[in-house]
Amino acid sequence: MPPQLKSVIGPYHSAPATCQDYDPCAVEVAQRIEQMIGAQLPAVQVEHIGSTAVPGCAGKGIVDLMVLYPDGHLEAVKALLDTLGFQRQTGRDPFPEERPMRVGSLEHQGRVFRLHVHVIAATSPEATALRTFRDRLRADAALRAAYVARKREIIASGVTDSIDYCLAKGTFVEEAISKLIT
Question: Which of 7, 50, 79, 85 has the most CB atoms within 10 Å of its CB?
Fold first, then answer.
């Protein structure tokens, strides 16, 4: 890694789960992160996933990306993310270091966007599932509306803890993915 590479990612701040309207600026934020990582590690593929990758899909407003690495590149990806300023998860239930997630923030157009970077083996079925769900949400307005409705129901029920929120919407996501991949 070049010695001039410096930390550009800000600290991650936990916040209660919400269901915010879609923000097209999230795509620009994702592209900036994709370029930062891709410029240093061309062997990896970076993809924007999650609700912020789906036009019209409300969600927590966190920009989710997956870094897909070929065999033998996990440690290089983690080292680069550390150098850029991404942080390990804190709190309960962090992803394991064999399949890590890093967090951070990026200022863009005067606003701070929270980031989740999922580091996944390129050959993992999880990568296929995440990509398939994202693409189906983009193509299917009824599925997208049902997903947003479920997320709003969860928030309306009083769930504000991010992990509890993710677990609550997990059944919807798993059912949708199982229908798409079978």
Answer: 50
Q: Mean pLDDT for the chain?
A: 93
Among positive and negative, which fits the CA dihedral 29, 130, 51, 79? negative
136 touches 147 (CB < 8 A) = no
Instruction: Give percent of the chain with pLDDT exceeding 90.
Output: 85
CB-based contact 62:114 (threshold 8 Å)? yes
Q: How many CA atoms lie within 13 A of 123 on its CB side?
A: 5
CATH ID of 25-181, from 3.30.460.10, 3.40.630.30, 3.90.920.10, 2.60.120.280 = 3.30.460.10
pLDDT tier at 5, thresholds 50, 70, 90: low
For 82, counting Cβ atoms within 10 Å of its Cβ (0-12 exposed, 13-18 middle, 19+ buried), the class is middle
Please state, in angstroms and rounded to a whole number, the distance separating the CA atoms of residues 157 and 54: 24
Interior angle at CA 167, CA 82 and CA 93, nearest 5: 40
